[in-house]
Amino acid sequence: MILVVDASVIVKWYIREEGSDGARRLLSGPDLLVTPTHAAAEIGHVLTRHVRAGALPRDETAAALAGLSRTASAIPLGVLHAEAIAVAVDAGTSFYDALYVAAAAGWNTRVVTADLHLVRTMSGTPWAAPGRRPHGLVG
């Protein structure tokens, strides 16, 4: 199965926090993990905040970003724009989050996220159809 993973899950591969164990289990599972290319910017933003706070060495951030392509296949943004605009406007979510949902819609799969706000926002929308519903990552 193909799963779209968002930045909230991917950062848990590198930062020990609630849900990290569940996020890391995805890495050893049978599923093909994919993510839109903008995820690298979101992940870099979060990880550099941890570097500035002294919670993560700078070189681990660089290694995480360099290794992203080995753990999750990148989806080019251009193929997602039209659907992401529809998701953002019609469901009222951010365009950043809409890109993950658009990717899942395009692959007829689901988003794995630790962002429960995204899960709640998408609930009851056409993008929450069975098999495409954003799935909250639990412990």
Automatic annotation (TrEMBL):
Any GO MF annotation of the entry: endonuclease activity
Pfam families linked: PIN (PF01850)
Gene3D superfamilies to which the protein is assigned, alphabetical: 5'-nuclease
Alphabetical UniProt keywords: Endonuclease, Hydrolase, Magnesium, Metal-binding, Nuclease, Toxin, Toxin-antitoxin system
HAMAP family: VapC_Nob1
UniProt family annotation: Belongs to the PINc/VapC protein family.
PANTHER family (UniProt xref): EXONUCLEASE VAPC9 (PTHR35901:SF1), RIBONUCLEASE VAPC3 (PTHR35901)
Stated name of the protein: Ribonuclease VapC
Species of origin: Methylobacterium cerastii
High-level lineage: Bacteria, Pseudomonadati, Pseudomonadota, Alphaproteobacteria, Hyphomicrobiales
Primary gene name: vapC_3
